[in-house]
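Record Amidophosphoribosyltransferase, 470 aa.
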Amino acid sequence: CGIFGVLGVQDAANFVALGLHALQHRGQEAGGIVSHDPEQGFNSARRFGYVRDNFTSTDIMETLPGPLAIGHVRYSTAGSKGQTAIRDVQPFFGEFSMGGAAIAHNGNITNANALRRELIERGSIFQSSSDSECIIHLMARSLQRDIPARMEDALRRVEGAFSVVAMTRTKLIGVRDALGVRPLVLGRIGPEENSGWVLSSETCALDIIGAEFVREIEPGEMVVISQETGVESRRPFRQKKPRFCIFEQVYFSRPDSILGGRSVYETRRQIGVELAREAPVEADLVCPVPDSGTPAAIGFAHESGIPYGMGIIRNQYMGRTFIEPTEQIRNMGVRLKLNVNRALIRGKRVILVDDSVVRGTTSRKIKEMILDAGAAEVHFRIASPPTAWPCFYGVDTPQREKLLAATMSEDEMRDFLGVDSLKFISLDGLYRAAGEAGGRNNSCPQYCDACFSGEYPVEPADMIEKGFKL
Ligand code: 5GP
Ligand code: SF4
Ligand code: MG
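=>
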């Protein structure tokens, strides 16, 4: 999911809508905005579909006045799937004795089932099936006297991965879990004498509203921001060694964002360079599977000296296939979204570079399309190691049994996909590309890489209860 908040500019909700539009790649099922105005109080709008189709109409935006607003774009990793329940669309709102608060959450709470059971037993009335709603109910039960302190209480009970943007009547709040699995950045907007504050999942959404990047919210940090006092930093959690999601580097974040002081585009290009060194092959053409494979393909072509070409053309009006939550839509998606550039492909030995193989359905279809177009050979090079484990921290990978790499070796996958060769980047190569010159520190990895390594930095309690085996 994507989260965004703005404090201290007129009609903050308009800026939030733009920010969410720039974060649309993080969630395409639904979006929501809550705003606060001193005269009109809290208002909210939650809708299925793209930001641009909802939060551009004056009918909606006029209902969201005020200098403070937060928003969320959703893709379901917990709770209902797809566009079925508007009650699961964030931000969530709660009314407390000291006033209202709204929260928007990116990540996954790994002990949500246990928390929900306990809260319901003690009288909480849940409105949604979302794991994130637990935070509101835990806040309601806290005995602290102000809302940020109640949030601290609540989040100390929550396990898993979370970046949170929240608001009270006067404050904008941002939090990252102690491992800092999901991103969150702070920005500044407007002329110096009259400027406001911005929180965003990624820096690309600061750019769209002309905000200046200030810094990342640190793992385990909570910032409480008000117009009067500026940014106050708190440390509610026990300090841990950060484990940022390495898959944000490979796929999830936008390439024009900066993560950990490093360009995501540059990291992805470097993945291609590493891949070309680790798994060279003689061929005539390097093609990306657009758009997610593009920077790595550029790096691969550069390093190998094999010409780069657009052998597959993407229809710009389709979304990301995997964010479509049902298998049936996903299956259709490939053809609706990608087409082969026959004139370029015919007779050539083609290297296809993609970000990941999950179920293998995309890769199989693409291989068929490329061979139909008359390619002489097809070689797959994948910008991540084999995805052999599900993510429980906010990326929607399917159950373990459906992951190709969970049941097959690399050679079996090659045969299943029907390609001439298939190679994945090594974990070390991926770490090097992400700026870790010495590769992965196996005794204390610098990132979360559980979907590749099976080493989960937070025990997925709910899943273990449901029978998941580590
Ligand atoms: P599949 O192998 O399941 O057909 O799909 C792989 C494609 O889905 C990749 O090219 C990638 O663009 C996209 N994808 C990337 N990450 C994920 C993920 O975590 N889960 C799923 N289901 N698809 C992903
Ligand atoms: Fe990211 Fe994979 Fe860890 Fe999930 S399991 S947080 S996708 S690295
Ligand atoms: Mg892809």
